Prior knowledge:
The longest helix has 12 residues, at 166-177. The protein has one domain: Metallo-beta-lactamase, Chain A. Helices cover 24% and strands 28% of the residues. It contains six helices and twelve strands. By secondary structure, the protein is an alpha/beta fold. The structure holds zinc ion. Residues 56, 58, 132, 149 line the site of zinc ion.
Amino acid sequence: MEIKTFVEGPIDANNYLIIDEKTKDAVLIDCSSARPEFIKAVKDSGVNLKYILLTHGHFDHLLGIDAFKEAFGVDTYVAEDDLTQVKLVPDMMQMFLGMSPAPVPAIVNFVNDGDEFKIGDIVIKAISTPGHTKGGMCYLVESNLFSGDTLFQGSVGRCDLLEGDLKAIVKSIKEKLFTLSEDTKVYPGHGASTTIGYEKKYNEILNI
Length: 208
Ligand SMILES: [Zn+2]
């Protein structure tokens, strides 16, 4: 398995391309930009992009999905609980970036807690982690966790935005993520990667 990281979009979100080296099937976790260089880089990887899986519905993680659908014919999945967030993308872009409203991205596929996606023999398992948003999802791929804006190195996602819930994020992290093996590598939606073991020792959540 190969993991390629692309830092893209207005708020430097991490997009992770996970590739099964045998079949070249791939999945993209988050898709934060329609920048042609980003699309070209994924094309040049020579992969069969099978799914785009969103960690949540915030605008800074999904601005590329329509362009990727056009380039790769690939569908995007989000938790149904985050459709409210997806519908707000044009407003958020105006509020945070002063950009003129763009159309609401078209998502018709939903991911639920425990769902599994496959690329070759590699299984991608969805874990529902509400808190940063109601429909927040993490994805576990072997011993790698793609944690979106739920868990960062040393900190957790903000809970003061629409439908954010501090109690829920603490519960999600302590009960669902901190029960994973300590050597699980964590790839967050922004910033540097970390491990579950490190976060169980040093994350700010321990003081919440
Ligand atoms: Zn977010």
